[in-house]
Automatic annotation (TrEMBL):
The keyword Transmembrane helix applies. The chain crosses the membrane at residues 93-117, 156-177, 215-238, 258-282, 326-349, 361-381, 436-461. Keywords: Membrane, Transmembrane, Transmembrane helix. This is Gustatory receptor. The lineage of its organism: Eukaryota, Metazoa, Ecdysozoa, Arthropoda, Hexapoda. It comes from Euphydryas editha.
Length: 462
């Protein structure tokens, strides 16, 4: 993992090369301002008095555009989830630092409380509220006086195991974003936005806008996922009487408070998971754009072969962070999501040998399974797209050799060095420490459709 000083020097080098090679126009509306700190890394940015036009933005304006449009809003989301400090420890009082730690601890407490409430209410994320009443005393042949609430399913596999893995995913993400390296996303965004803004001969470009829209697409998609999950939980709760273990004799006000607290804690569970998965998708998208822009610059002769190989070496470090540091948090959530999706689908197909009394809620139960399946598939799709871009980078040497007129001033030694270096690249996005490729994802989806049709033909989907 790259340290902060190394990341800053690398970003500064990219800034210098960008300024030297760029012949863009500078907007008259831009005024140079004092140095602005961005979570510990100070860069000189331009203060935009009007809405910036990304077609003719200078280097400082690009950094300001990146910071104001995507970086700071997303860092605020991480702060709300307790994954980043509320204040900068180096420039804050002890009281503010204590409040920052208290906020993260508060999120952790609500998550643990949510696991307990889910067990008390027999609430399973794969199918909803599942419990049965067992009579304790028979007073007549027609009615029972006292009942004991029993949850369907094994406690260890149904509640304890998934809850522990889910909390470990949060705890690891907390360590990764808050303690280990909290500048990775910032440095990566700055580098990619600078590369996206460069065009030869000062021609206008809309790449920063397209990149921004793609990043916000994943954020909006995660927010939509959380809203749908919240609606499904509320609809499940509205479809019957909810009983809390050990609280059967409590007042109706207490039961209502527990229901509200259950909804709130479950929402926090989903927000934490969606934030971590979204962070993985954002960094995978940025790395894909990073490699694509480097390939375009080499083919267009706007970067020397030696500098291109240096940038690829920096890309290796960024990809290593994604595979070895961020991916394990996503894998922990993916294990839980796959378990919930598989269990829920088997329950919908009446393959559960014990829980035969709980009836699926029309539409809501299917929607619930769709949520977990989508949370599983999206990271694999992003990893497959990044791996595909890595494979295209391996062929850049052959593309360079196929353009003799454009690269007639490039020596044969440089072209041969790029060809040998690119061919030797072994860059892949990994999940569960296994390279993810698009062909494997397509094969998995094909097998899923085959199984779906087979189950339908066998009358399991009626």
């Amino acid at each position: 993992m790259q340290n902060d000083n190394g990341s800053y020097r690398s970003t500064t080098d990219l800034l210098d090369s960008h300024v030297l090679e760029s012949n863009k126009l500078v907007l008259p509306a831009m005024e140079r301002s004092t140095r602005s700190s961005l979570d510990g890394n100070s860069v000189e940015i331009g203060e935009i008095t009007e809405s910036p036009d990304t077609e003719y933005m200078s280097t400082s304006a690009i950094l300001h555009y990146c910071k104001s449009k995507i970086l700071l809003p997303y860092l605020k989301i991480l702060t709300i989830m307790g994954l980043r400090p509320v204040v900068d420890a180096s420039n804050s009082s002890k009281l503010a630092i204590c409040f920052s730690h208290f906020h993260s601890a508060q999120v952790a407490v609500f998550m643990c409380l949510g696991y307990i409430l889910q067990y008390m209410a027999c609430f399973r994320r794969d199918r909803g509220f599942c419990y049965k009443l067992i009579p304790l005393a028979l007073t007549s042949s027609y009615e029972y006086d006292v009942y004991k609430q029993v949850c369907y399913g094994n406690v260890a596999f149904t509640y304890v195991g998934p809850s522990v893995l889910h909390f470990l995913g949060f705890f690891y993400a907390l360590y990764l974003f808050r303690i280990a390296d909290n500048e990775q996303l910032q440095n990566l965004m700055e580098r990619v936005f600078l590369l996206s803004s460069y065009t030869p001969q000062g021609m206008p470009t809309a790449k920063p806008k397209r990149l921004l829209r793609m990043l916000w697409f994943f954020i909006i998609l995660s927010i939509l996922w959380m809203c749908i999950s919240l609606c499904s939980v509320n609809l499940m709760m509205a479809k019957g009487t909810i009983m809390f273990r050990w609280m059967e004799t409590s007042s109706s006000e207490m039961i209502l408070g527990l229901k509200i607290l259950l909804i709130l804690c479950t929402l926090i569970h989903d927000m934490v998971q969606a934030t971590v998965i979204t962070s993985y998708c954002l960094q995978a998208q940025l790395l894909q754009a990073h490699l694509m822009f480097l390939r375009e610059r080499l083919l267009n002769r706007t970067i020397t072969p030696l500098n291109w190989m240096r940038e690829i070496s920096e890309f290796r470090k960024l990809l290593k962070y994604l595979n070895n540091d961020l991916a394990p948090a996503v894998c922990l959530f993916t294990i839980v999501n796959i378990s919930w999706a598989t269990s829920g689908i088997m329950w919908l197909l009446n393959l559960d040998k014990v829980d035969t009394g709980t009836e699926p809620i029309a539409g809501i139960s299917i929607l619930n399974q769709f949520l977990w399946i989508s949370a599983v598939i999206v990271p694999f799709i992003q990893a497959a797209r990044l791996s595909a871009e890595c494979r295209r980078a391996q062929g850049v040497g052959h593309e360079l050799s196929a353009r003799p007129f454009l690269h007639r001033d490039t020596s044969a030694e440089d072209i041969g060095a790029v060809l040998a270096y690119a061919t030797s690249l072994r860059l892949r996005a990994k999940l569960f420490h296994y390279p993810v490729a698009g062909r494997f994802v397509c094969l998995l989806l094909t097998l899923t459709l085959i199984v779906l049709f087979a189950l339908g033909m066998s009358h399991y989907l009626q």
